[in-house]
Every structure is written in structure tokens, then in C-alpha cells.
Design goal:
The protein is α/β, with parallel strands linked by helices. It has 15 helices and 20 strands. Helix 1 (about 15-30) links the parallel strand 1 (about 5-10) and strand 2. The structure holds ligand PMT.
């Protein structure tokens, strides 16, 4: 059931908009409150009055209407929702969301929001198959946007194929499934580190490493999807901030440590960042290219994982680290677990041949006090989901003890 859940339903302009009216009914029958945003094109297919009558709330459509902005600014529209459902999600609105365009109320609400987004695409088969649509969806999936459908069957214009919007009951089931998952870690606080750190050599140069942040960001997104209040402390990356996650951007290992310590107490900490083991004794001025090449003096950085694992009365209930190894993977990871005091270590082979750094997949071996569990090659998103589910199971078992 959806009692107390607040859904913001964005209706875009496609013939499937007529099914959105039934979706409003299905969601309300299950106890949700539904507020609607309609694009101009959607209003060609169904009237705002119909959506307003069924939702029992006024319908928002105009970004530039003073009344809309005064009564309910676009930020408040998403702030006051637990989930944003876009149904139908047209190729056009999907493209706008992927590109970050904000030229009407619907697209502005979507990009100004940090709430979870569920898309129910609906379009002609060829629009669906178009590489642009598929690459836009891949971008959105990486950012944590979820999708239900489309389905195969008769379409408008007497055609048939993949592109039909999922049935309203199926979408309502997906909304319920979202909230069931969302309850698994609700009330828990999670801290995740991600990306590389940059260690300054002089005011213009630094040393760093090949971490892209993909794995750490995917973990933070997955934990947040299960409802945990999640803070992601990220070194410099090109990854977008995951939805529903508070992100603190840092550069150096020492900055990362101080931000992490400020988040304590947390229930679970996952250290996925590739933190530089050493920093450079920084030169106050730019090093000049003259004479012999300079010698860089390295100083050991603090170990964030070990610090969190030994945080006495503020130690997270569950401390998870990674081991990035290029040889003797399991033995080295076991030794790291013991040396750093982590509960779980996710061992991954980062040799050049494994292609883990920067890629979209990983090959994880989870090491805990009972032994080793090998997950095989998975997408980094799936690694995040699997770890988040494992963390939920851990707290479930603890609660039952
Ligand atoms: O970012 P991607 O391109 O997606 O790649 C993912 C990844 C390979 C970076 C990730 O899966 C991974 O292995 N992260 C840990 C990288 C690392 O620094 O491993 P390590 O074996 O050197 O360190 C062991 C653990 O100690 C890690 O949890 C690390 O975060 C932590 N550590 C290390 C040094 C330090 N000063 N402080 C730390 O907290």
C-alpha cells in the first residue's frame, strides 16, 4: 500500500497520457496523494481539469506563471514529493532530462529535483529503438533513474511493437515496489567514499590515480534507493551526483578524512575511494623547470578506513572497505581486512588486464569473518545493488538477534 506516500506525476505529451488518468486513480486507491505537472503537449491529449478532478489537487503546468511560482515554486513541487513518476515519458522529455534542459515546468522540476525518478516510457517503436533514445536512457540509468516498461503490443497509428506505456496497475506496482525497497534501510545513516584523491605537488600540479568514482557513486545510489540517509564524500570525478544522496566534494585525503569524521556517528561506512597513500611535501611556489629534476618527498596520508574502523564509541556498526590488488588478490585482501579492522572487504583485481578502473563493470569477492563470496563479473550498478541488499540483510539480522 502507499498510505502517506506523495507522488508527483509528470504527464508528458503522448497518446498514452489518457492512461495517466487511470494511473492517478490506481495510486490514490492504494493510499498515495498525487499531484500532477503537465507539459503543454500533454494538454493536447487530456485536460488539466480531468487530472485535477481525479487527483483532487490543482495541476501545475506553467513555469512562468506568477501564480504557480507564488503558490508552489518548482523546487517545492519536488521537495514535497517522495517519488517523481513520469508517465508517459516521451522521447522528447527523456532527451531533455538526459541533456539537462529546463525550458518548461516539467523539465525544470525534473532537473531541479534530488528525488528518485521512475520513468514509464511510451512512444512509437522506431522512436524507442532510435540510438539517441537508447543512449539517453543509458545516461539516465547511470544517474540512478529507474524505468518501468515500455511493453510490446498495439500502438497508436495502427502499428504494433515495443513502445506501449506499461499498464497503470503495473506502474502502480512498480511504485509500491520502490517503497518496499525504500523501507529496507530507512532510518539508517550511511557514509560512502568514492573517486580518487588529488595530492598537490605545488600550487598547479598534483598526483592522483585512475579511479573514476563509478563504483563508489553506484554504491551510494543503491544504498540511498533502499532509504538510508546517505552521504557521499567524493574526490574529483566526472560522475554526476547521485539522486537522493548528499554529496560533499573534496580533493585531498586529509580533506576526505575530516569530512568523513564530521559525519559520525553513522550505521554503515563504505570506503570505495582510491585514497592516495602518500601526499607530497607541497612546494609553496610553482616548481621551476631548471637544473636537475626536483625530488618529491612523500609523506604518509591518514588511513580513512582504518580511522573509521577504530573510531572507539563512534565506530559505525558495519565498516566496509575495498582492496584494490594486482596480485594475490584474496590473500592480500584478507590481510587488509585484518590490518585495517574492517568488517567486510570487497576485493577487486585492478590490474590493467582487468579493466576495472574507469569501466562500467567489476569482479568482486566479498570477504567477511566467515570466508569469501565471489560475485563474478557484474555492472558497477549491480555491485551497488548487491552490496546494499547485503547491508540491509546485515541490519535485519542484527535487529532479530
Ligand atoms: O572508481 P572506479 O573507476 O569505479 O574504480 C573502482 C575502484 C577500483 C577504485 C574501487 O572498486 C576500489 O577498489 N576502491 C579502493 C581503492 C583503494 O584505494 O584500495 P586500497 O587497497 O589501496 O585500499 C584499501 C582500502 O583502504 C580501501 O577501502 C580504501 O578506500 C581505503 N583507504 C586507503 C588508503 C587511505 N589512505 N585511506 C583509505 O581509506
Amino acid at each position: 500500500m502507499l498510505h502517506g506516500r506523495r507522488i508527483l506525476l509528470v504527464i508528458a505529451g503522448g497518446i498514452a497520457a489518457y492512461k495517466s488518468l487511470e494511473l492517478i486513480r490506481r495510486l490514490r486507491e492504494r493510499g498515495a496523494t498525487v499531484r500532477c505537472v503537465m507539459t503543454a503537449a500533454a494538454q493536447r491529449f487530456i485536460t488539466p481539469l480531468a487530472a485535477q478532478t481525479l487527483s483532487g489537487d490543482r495541476v501545475y503546468s506553467d513555469l512562468f506563471s506568477l501564480t504557480d511560482e507564488n503558490e508552489m515554486g518548482h523546487l517545492r513541487l519536488s521537495q514535497e514529493a517522495d517519488l517523481i513518476v513520469v508517465a508517459p515519458a516521451t522521447a522528447d522529455l527523456i532527451a531533455k532530462l538526459a541533456a539537462g534542459l529546463a525550458d518548461d515546468l516539467a523539465s525544470t522540476v525534473l532537473i531541479a529535483s534530488n528525488k528518485p525518478i521512475l520513468l514509464a516510457p511510451a512512444m512509437n517503436t522506431r522512436m524507442w529503438a532510435n540510438p539517441a533514445t537508447q543512449s539517453n536512457l543509458a545516461v539516465l540509468e547511470k544517474r540512478g533513474v529507474t524505468r518501468i516498461g515500455p511493453e510490446s503490443g498495439p500502438l497508436a497509428e495502427a502499428e504494433s511493437g515495443l513502445g506501449r506505456m506499461a499498464e497503470p496497475t503495473t506502474i502502480a506496482d512498480a511504485v509500491e515496489a520502490h517503497f518496499v525497497a525504500y523501507a529496507l534501510l530507512r532510518g539508517r545513516k550511511a557514509l560512502v567514499t568514492s573517486g580518487p584523491t588529488e595530492e598537490a605537488i605545488d600550487p598547479v600540479r598534483y598526483i592522483a590515480n585512475r579511479s573514476s568514482g563509478k563504483q563508489g557513486h553506484a554504491i551510494a545510489a543503491a544504498i540511498a534507493r533502499l532509504g538510508a540517509d546517505t552521504v557521499l564524500v567524493s574526490g574529483p570525478t566526472r560522475e554526476a551526483d547521485p539522486p537522493g544522496v548528499r554529496v560533499v566534494h573534496v580533493r585531498s585525503a586529509r580533506e576526505m578524512l575530516s569530512v568523513c569524521e564530521a559525519q559520525l556517528p553513522v550505521d554503515v561506512a563504505v570506503c570505495a575511494a582510491a585514497v592516495a597513500d602518500w601526499r607530497v611535501d607541497v612546494a609553496p611556489q610553482k616548481l621551476k623547470k631548471k637544473g636537475a629534476p626536483p625530488t618529491l618527498t612523500l609523506v604518509e596520508n591518514p588511513d580513512i578506513l582504518a580511522t573509521l574502523a577504530h573510531a572507539a564509541n563512534r565506530r559505525p556498526r558495519l565498516v566496509v572497505g575495498f582492496a584494490a590488488e594486482t596480485e594475490n588478490l584474496i590473500a592480500a585482501a584478507r590481510a587488509k581486512r585484518a590490518a585495517k579492522g574492517a568488517d567486510w572487504i570487497l576485493a577487486n583485481d585492478v590490474s590493467a588486464a582487468s579493466g576495472v578502473f574507469g569501466s562500467d563493470s567489476n569482479d568482486i569477492h566479498l570477504i567477511d569473518e566467515r570466508g569469501t563470496e565471489s560475485w563474478g563479473r557484474l555492472s558497477k550498478r549491480d555491485v551497488g545493488d548487491r552490496l546494499a541488499a547485503r547491508i540491509a540483510q546485515f541490519f535485519d539480522r542484527k535487529a532479530a538477534e
